[in-house]
Automatic annotation (TrEMBL):
<keyword id="KW-0456">Lyase</keyword>
<comment type="subunit">
    <text>Heterodimer of LeuC and LeuD.</text>
</comment>
<dbReference type="InterPro" id="IPR015928">
    <property type="entry name" value="Aconitase/3IPM_dehydase_swvl"/>
</dbReference>
<comment type="function">
    <text>Catalyzes the isomerization between 2-isopropylmalate and 3-isopropylmalate, via the formation of 2-isopropylmaleate.</text>
</comment>
<keyword id="KW-0028">Amino-acid biosynthesis</keyword>
<comment type="pathway">
    <text>Amino-acid biosynthesis; L-leucine biosynthesis; L-leucine from 3-methyl-2-oxobutanoate: step 2/4.</text>
</comment>
<dbReference type="GO" id="GO:0003861">
    <property type="term" value="F:3-isopropylmalate dehydratase activity"/>
</dbReference>
<protein>
    <recommendedName>
        <fullName>3-isopropylmalate dehydratase</fullName>
        <ecNumber>4.2.1.33</ecNumber>
    </recommendedName>
</protein>
<keyword id="KW-0100">Branched-chain amino acid biosynthesis</keyword>
<dbReference type="InterPro" id="IPR000573">
    <property type="entry name" value="AconitaseA/IPMdHydase_ssu_swvl"/>
</dbReference>
<comment type="similarity">
    <text>Belongs to the LeuD family. LeuD type 1 subfamily.</text>
</comment>
<keyword id="KW-0432">Leucine biosynthesis</keyword>
<feature type="domain" description="Aconitase A/isopropylmalate dehydratase small subunit swivel">
    <location>
        <begin position="2"/>
        <end position="36"/>
    </location>
</feature>
<dbReference type="GO" id="GO:0009098">
    <property type="term" value="P:L-leucine biosynthetic process"/>
</dbReference>
<dbReference type="Pfam" id="PF00694">
    <property type="entry name" value="Aconitase_C"/>
</dbReference>
<dbReference type="InterPro" id="IPR050075">
    <property type="entry name" value="LeuD"/>
</dbReference>
Amino acid sequence: MWGLQQYGIHAVIATSFAEIFHGNAMNNQLLLVTLPPDQVEQLMDESDDANGLSIKIDIAAQTLHSSHVQACFELMPRHRKMFLENLDSIGLSLTYQDQITRLAQKHWSQQPWLHNVAEFCTRTGNEPS
């Protein structure tokens, strides 16, 4: 996936992708577009044209346009947000910082005895009962 990006490829269009490649690629800003076989074949035929192939991919609208193919594609909401806001996985997590903080505060207020368990065990040599 990084090799493709280093070569200047920003998107790959195919009929399917292996699950682990899909997850890694999307999380690292390599857009994967899944289209039906007939549309992929049309794009391949179009790429053989002497004038070359020009494709416009609109991530916000989740559409793809070439001279002969107009298609819609699906993106998971998290991946769409990552591409539109130029975020990696950590950056995406940080957009939820307020919710994470509120959840942590709620957790510690409901279960305060868990807050320093590791420190207590290390300091006293005891296991919690």
